[in-house]
Sequence to fold (175 residues):
Amino acid sequence: MSSPVPEFADPWHWADLGKRIHGRVPLAEMPRLAAALVRCDGEAEFELGFHRDPHRRARIDGWIRALLTLECQRCLGPMAFAVERAVSLAVVEGLAEMEALPEDQEPLLMESARVALKELIEDELLIELPQVARHAEGACVTQLEKPAPAAEAEAPSVRKNPFAQLAALKDKDNL
Fold:
């Protein structure tokens, strides 16, 4: 059983301690993510480990899992979207330190001495959202109705010319 998630973490201190944290955060407690969801039921499960790399940088490594309910943009029905994201962040204090990181390391630019854990988890889930959420081809709940083939085969009805009345008036004037 996991303990309550601390609101904030000091990543440098926790890295020195080699601290690991495992827990769950209700999706409803992440307002930016909740705005993109059809339903906010469920939780995001996570495990984060804090440590120092060989260059003595504070690092956060772990994973985040959640089952999100998005709106399919094809049929506008609910769509289950499973997220399992690996987290690997290098904690940096400024832009110069961020630019010095190797390209394969993702920075976590700190604005203060503490990081809000729920916001970090929410950010990582937001990164995983698809640009356009859609069911797999043919899996939409609501399919658009296509016209029946018999309707196409019927003889076209005779359409009335809207200008026929004008022609009749013109003929009256010429008499």
In short: The first strand starts at residue 8 and ends at 9. The chain has a mean pLDDT of 85.
